[in-house]
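Kindly go through one protein, given below as sequence and tokens. The question is how this chain folds according to its tokens.

***
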Amino acid sequence: MSTKGPENSSSMVELLSFRVAGQDFSADIMSVREIRSWTAATPLPHSQPFVRGVINLRGTVLPVVDLAQRLGLPCAQNSDRNVIIVVEINEAPLGLLVEAVSDILTVESKELTPPPDIKADDGQKFIQALTVIEERMFKVLDLGAILPDAKKEAA
């Protein structure tokens, strides 16, 4: 891991790393608003299968997505160890249910490699980059692909 210095800060990227279905993922830390312990979500009728429901976050209704299910991986089991990462996507808050938060990674932009051109069944490409740190491969999520139709549904 690298440390952020003033002379090379423009080429450094900070990522929050976390586990989903036993795999290492990360997201741009600038999109992360908070990390909170698992809270049971209230299911909503007719929502997408990967949407666990909504929770009340200090007066705001926060949708919670089971990130494993959204990525086509084995679903997370309800556990006190699970956490919800609250992110902001297109100026809207969203909760991502993950197994655990690992670390904050600081990497050079040049260490981020584009992934192979593989898309999900719905045409979405969830991974925007890959990076290897201490022999572990981290997949950097494209958070905008998690709920691609959010603006359409809001209209």
User: Anything to note?
Assistant: The chain has one domain: 8-154. Residues 1-9, 150-155 have pLDDT under 50 and may be disordered. Residues 8-154 form a domain with the OB fold (Dihydrolipoamide Acetyltransferase, E2P) fold (CATH 2.40.50.180). The helical segments are 67-70, 150-154.
